[in-house]
Records
---
Amino acid sequence: MTINKHDTVRAIEWKNDRLYLLDQRLLPDTRKELEYTDVASVATAITDMVVRGAPAIGITAAFGVVIAARRRYQQSTTDWKELIEEDLSMLAASRPTAINLFWAIERMRELINAIDADPVSILLNEAKRIHDEDIAANYRMGELALGLIQDHSSVLTHCNAGSLATGGYGTALGVIRACWTAGKLDSVYADETRPWLQGSRLTAWELLQDQIPVTLIAEGAASMLMQQRMISWIIVGSDRIAANGDVANKIGTYNLAISARYHGVKFMVVAPTSTIAMQTPTGKDIPIEFRDADELLSLSGQPVAASGAEAWNPVFDVTPASLVDVIVTEKGLIQAPDEAKIHALMRA
Ligand code: MRU
């Protein structure tokens, strides 16, 4: 896929028969790639957020399956399919909310079931295809969303739904890249995205790498930004869209959607169809990940809260479909999403 000056960042790479992940825990200060040759370390990398973002963890898991198959086939050319199930379960247990993880593992499992020979090159081609298709979907979503954004718009994004969170180019940031390249945007705002700071650490870094100016706001400044009519769209990604159009995304997304509706700001969710979970009927059925209290109570190892305080740390929330103006997928736009429209798009 073409890389242009507004699309230079890649977080996942397969080279020399190994998986390389850009360590997102160290950004923006340090740019360091880690090398992976065993599946347990790949699962830990997902849990520990070396790699994060729904499509990115799906792609990483697909390469993790390749690494697992290499070892299991060496172990036993007859029993490798049974043996690898343990590895698939370990990958699936790495994080609970993003459906892309389970979608990618399932796609690899279906192929495993159909293979009769040495699986490694076949599975590697499939993992690369998952990666390439994700980038292509992101470019397509960028093109599709261009028509929704007026010239001289300003937008706010939340968390990091960019190259770092996907195979490349990004979902929400893909739309922002496309709009920036087309000259439609006056300003891009990113909120910090507490507590892990995906906005200030990752989104700001990624946009600046690609020469797209970005203005950070504190999370609590978003409603004032809208009240002062400084933005016309909020553009976010998603970790899982239920069959009725409810959207799970980074904690704080729901706050933004409520405030956007109140202030007449449009709310756009950008996600490939691999994020739509037809097996999850509504937002209530989406498992929400809770992470360690320490992610809230300290920053880079330094305490930032009164010693002894406890913390409640859900890292995703669910925005009801009724607060979403449009979902952008690579298969088309869904305005005012509901169950019937989601079904129609997924059947098409
Ligand atoms: O906890 P994270 O950083 O994995 O959460 C990521 C998000 O919530 C993103 O907005 C989402 O995965 C969409 S990424 C294209």
---
Amino acid sequence: MKDLPKLELHLHLEGAAPPAFICGLAAEKHVDISGVFDEGGHYSYTDFWHFLKVYEAATSVLQTPEDYRRLTLAVLEESAAHGVIYTESFISPDFCGGRDLAAWRDYLAAIEDAAAEAQAKMGITLRAIVTPIRHFGPEKAREVAICAAETAGRFVTGFGIAGDEKVLDPKDYLWSFDCAREAGLGITAHAGEWRGPEHIRATLAALNPSRIGHGVRAIEDLALVDELAERGTVLEVCPGSNIALGLYPDWRKHPIGQLFDRGVKVTVSTDDPPFFHTTMSREWDRLADALDWDQGVFETLNRTALDAAFCDPETKDKIAKKLEPRA
Ligand code: HPA
Ligand code: ZN
């Protein structure tokens, strides 16, 4: 599986930071990150809400555009090593410059610089989805949306929302999503991970996203599953993340197979790979084992991801060529 080309649509940039990278930067900067790692050097957390806190603590070592340039390279190296040829990553002005537009532009330039280097050296393409943090509230999300709209283009191609799904409601973020949509950005939103089907319905009604982050709890309402299939809404499913966080007990009990069989457009991503002890090749390996998925299914996942990607048509053509079987 490792060598097969893969597309990934749902990856939090800071959440993909290799532990050694965060430890190294913390030492360089003399930042206290006690509590972030366990004795084995792995990210350490008890549940999703604690995970969010540990995530923010680890992110506190990332303080300059240069830090993000190095982070982006480290993350893309890891993704490329697992066969990823195209990835969309959530990037947040909350962490990159405190929502100040001029500072955000500097962070973005550094991230883009790393992306260009990774493209040239490793053949992996990165695009950015600008993402407010839900539990920081709608006012800050507006500032994030303005940063996104002002920098929308070839690299910044999408807008989403991450953070604590249980806080507030999708309609509270309508202004931000309208702002991003008017700037031409693709729309996705985390929903249906920590709240059930009704939150997916509310997200569809308020924000009309073409993609949903996770969305797996749609399985608790088969009428909603059919509606997702009919609408062609693409789910960014992260099975290893769901299992690591205790949403499902094991790979066989994960609903991705049922969603796929019922006609929902599903894709597979890692979310925050080192936090969840996963990689894209591990996701594919485990799904092949648990669900008996053959190569044809994984090719379908790639094609679904390519269709749903937020990048421009020329980039899609280039990625499509890389997916063609070699003679
Ligand atoms: N889910 C929601 N919010 C997040 C995540 C995640 O996996 N990672 C960072 N913020
Ligand atoms: Zn996520």
